[in-house]
Amino acid sequence: MTQNGTVVRLSGVRKTFGAHTAVDDFDLAIEPGTIYGLLGPNGSGKTTTIRMMMGILLPDGGSVELFGGAPDFARRSRVGYLPEERGVYEKMKVLEQLVFFGEIRGVGRSLARTRAEAWLERLGLSEWASKKVQALSKGMQQKVQFISTVLHDPELLILDEPFSGLDPINQDVLEEIVLEEKERGKTILFSTHLMEQAERLCERVCLISRSRKVLDDDLKELKRRERSGVVAVEFDGEAPSAATWPGVSDVEESGDAFHLSLHDGVRPEEILGAVLSEGVSLRRFELLEPRLHEIFVRHAGEPAEDDAPSQTGGGS
Amino acid sequence: MKQVWSVIRREYVERVKTRAFILSTLGMPLLMIGIMAVVGFVAVLSEQSERQIALIDLNGQLGERVQQALDRAGYDVELAAPGTDTEDLDQQVLDEELEAYIVLDDTTASEAVFAYRSKEPPGGVRSQLMRAAIVEEVVDLRLGQLEDGDSVRRLFQGGSLEYEPVGLDEEEAEEAEAERITGMITGIAGGIILYIMMLAYGAQTLQSVLEEKQSRVVELVISSLRPWQLMLGKIVGVGAVGLTQVAIWIGCVALLASLALPTLIAAASDFEELAQFRQYLPGPGAVLLLVVFFLLGYFLYSSLFAAVGAMCRNLQEAGQTQAPLIFLIIIPFMLQMMTFQGNNMQWMNWVALFPFFSPIMMYPRAVMGDVPAWMVAVSIVLMALTVWGSSWVAGRIYKVGILSQGNRPSPRELLRWIREA
């Protein structure tokens, strides 16, 4: 129940919609104070997984735990949940809507109002406070919804595709807030199909593809392990003839740099030695870290930003 | 509980602010007044005869009486001099000097059949008014010729049940009579209020549930509230809106009445007559009973409407699915209308015990004193049990339904929802 225990734990979770298996044999453990990314293409089962965490869907098999117990009402109220479907009371005024959501999550009316006003100010929506929600653009509505997610100062934020539909400036603002919340000791789980975003924010990622978990690891650890054996080199002046280097299977020119793919078992130091022995002056020698995107494709066998149609009946 | 209160407040405030609420609250009385005014105006307008109407009396007994009667009905009719030739009158009609003329002859004097001669047939209103005026005069004439005409005339007025109190003094008897009238007024008004509340506001509960489900707001709300809390908050909130509307309507009537009161005082010869109005106000017992029937009936139906809303994906589906509920409300209202029109039958008292019919059928019976007290008590107990059962079922359907985006459940699936929720 405390911040010391595992915040979210899924064990062997399975969910089917008719003949379609949306999530299969899924394990997940989120430790407190981390930013956890749930990554995968549309339709891979991210939203279904999140909806099971929130008790909106019941798993057909396996167990879901929040703060060390069943995702009951008391535990769910410690979560700030931003669903993928941006449900709002369209005809309610912005501030009134925020106060209402604060209230039903146990924040006093006046405190909810104060907090809502502060958040609106921060997200540049103050002048919209007394407008009806339906008058706002989609992006603004999304910011309003984000505010209602954090208004009751929850321990855990579960954000389903929080950045989609936002312009880059607002994406940055939201990223900043997410990092801030992490600094304040909050645990954050968010799903995304945008690998770059995940790469910037997450400490730990879980990759889902076709209803199954493919990878679940610390991001730095993952990248270290997944190094592809590609070395980038740049020279001052004339480059040596690349074909003569030992252990290199392929050379690709990328601007001033050469990307050298190494044969299996060839260590980068050997290449460095070979390059230096050519007597050229070296400006850059870097072990290239794989992009998350590449890792994903390598493991899932499908592009990460594949826009597969999301399943009806269960969301993606 | 605090959160339920927030839901109630949101539901109430958001609904009372809508244009639909304001329009229907103000519009309903205005519409009624408007319709009455238009109907009256049109009737008067269509009865403005352009040219003179004449009357010729070939029988010699009816002429003046009919002229006066038609005058009272709003027709300015010129009585033709005795011996006027009908061919002359026909010519005047053809020349458009007269619009029409009425011929009273011996058949008229015996059977109230008369000729209306004109180039144009008379309108519906005109034929009705003229016929009624002339029939009345003929009946009057013929009764006057009878020795016991007065008593036959009273017989035509429908007779009367004269209540003779045994063991009551005059004052008590008057009170009992006042109570009966009060019961009737309260029963009719109460029945109509219950009907409106259950039908209109039950359906609004459905709409409110459906809106939240469609926009998926419910997924957010439900992460902080138990489903039954949300359902209860909705039902109470929407019900409070309905009560506000009814209160405003009653207030309007009271306001109009009090504006009219000075006129009444001026018109009343003695104040005692005026004071009698007061005794027709329903007593606390009748009001309390209305509250009980309202709470049970409204809760019964609105929880089921909420369940229907949770089962459906859109308004069209909901429209079909709610049909049985609508019938359950309309049928007792029809039966009750028959009762109000005086066609009460003993077996209907038993029908009124059916919990889904009780609010509309048992309440008026209770305040009119048509049923024994034990039946009212049994009906309240039955309704309470039904509310308990139906809200249990509705709550379970609601709980599963609001989060289900799939097809409307089949009866079998519905049973599974209820079992497994």
Walkthrough of the structure:
The complex is a heterodimer of chains A (316) and B (421). By secondary structure, chain A is of the alpha/beta class. Helices cover 31% and strands 28% of the residues of chain A. Chain A contains 10 helices and 13 strands. A 6-stranded mixed β-sheet of chain A has the order 5-6-7-3-8-9, with helices on both faces. A 4-stranded antiparallel β-sheet of chain A has the order 11-12-10-13, covered by helices on one side. In chain A, helix 3 (94-104) crosses helix 4 (109-122) and helix 3 (94-104) packs parallel to helix 5. Mean pLDDT of chain A is 83; it is low at 304-316. By secondary structure, chain B is mostly helical. Chain B is 73% helix and 5% strand. Chain B has a 4-stranded mixed β-sheet, sandwiched between helices. In chain B, helix 14 (323-340) runs parallel beside helix 16. Chain B is elongated, with a radius of gyration of 30 Å. Chain A binds chain B through residues 51, 54-57, 73, 76-77, 79, 81, 83, 85-92, 100-101, 103-106, 148, 313-314, and chain B through 2-3, 6-7, 10, 14, 18, 212, 215-226, 403, 405-406.
Keywords:
heterodimer, A: 316 residues, alpha/beta, 6-stranded mixed beta sheet, 4-stranded antiparallel beta sheet, 10 helices, 13 strands, disordered C terminus, B: 421 residues, mainly alpha, 4-stranded mixed beta sheet, 18 helices, 4 strands, 5% strand
Tell me the layout of helices and strands.
The complex is a heterodimer of chains A (316) and B (421).
Chain A: E1 8-17, E2 20-30, E3 35-39, H1 46-53, E4 61-66, H2 73-76, E5 79-82, H3 94-104, H4 109-122, H5 138-150, E6 156-160, H6 168-183, E7 187-192, H7 195-201, E8 204-209, E9 212-218, H8 219-225, E10 230-236, E11 248-254, E12 257-262, H9 268-277, E13 281-287, H10 292-300
Parallel strand pairs in A: 3-7, 3-8, 5-6, 6-7
Antiparallel strand pairs in A: 1-2, 1-4, 8-9, 10-12, 10-13, 11-12
Chain B: H1 2-16, H2 19-46, E1 52-57, H3 63-72, E2 77-79, H4 86-94, E3 98-104, H5 106-111, E4 115-118, H6 124-145, H7 149-156, H8 170-215, H9 217-221, H10 227-267, H11 271-279, H12 284-311, H13 315-321, H14 323-340, H15 346-351, H16 358-368, H17 373-401, H18 411-420
Parallel strand pairs in B: 1-2, 1-3
Antiparallel strand pairs in B: 3-4
Helix pairs in contact in B: 1-10, 2-10, 3-6, 6-7, 8-10, 8-12, 8-14, 8-16, 10-12, 12-16, 12-17, 14-16, 16-17, 17-18
